[in-house]
Write a structure and sequence with these properties.
This protein is mainly beta and 107 residues long. The chain is built from 1 helix and 9 strands; from the N terminus they run E-E-E-E-E-E-E-E-E-H. The chain is globular. One of its GO terms (molecular function) is lyase activity.
Length: 107
């Protein structure tokens, strides 16, 4: 049965967003562009986070909602969690901003 609690918006997406907490080892079926894929979740993934739905080589674009959101910093396998530990974001990381940048934002 196709998992209803996973969002894959565009057939070009290489990640999916979970709409419920998922457990590592859980096997799910997804419909991506009319094709059914079975993916085993590699580790626990919390609500709202992403996982790969196809292999993503290091340096490859991460695509969500049909848009580039960053680039893989390491090889990512289907079912792997996709987050700041393996993605260089297009949007920057506020948690890495220096004190000078943080001061400008708060003024």
């Amino acid at each position: 049965m196709v998992e209803r609690h996973v969002a894959v918006v565009e057939p070009s997406d290489n990640v999916a967003t979970v709409l419920r907490d998922m457990q590592g080892g859980e096997s799910i079926e997804l419909n991506v562009g009319g094709e059914t894929k079975t993916i085993e979740i590699a580790e626990d993934i919390g609500f709202g986070h992403k996982f790969a739905i196809q292999p993503i080589p290091s340096g490859e674009t991460i695509t969500k909602y049909g848009k580039s959101i960053g680039n893989a910093t390491e090889d990512i396998e289907p079912g792997d969690r996709v987050h700041v530990h393996n993605v260089e974001s297009n949007y920057g990381r506020g948690d890495l901003a220096g004190d000078d940048q943080a001061k400008v934002v708060s003024e």
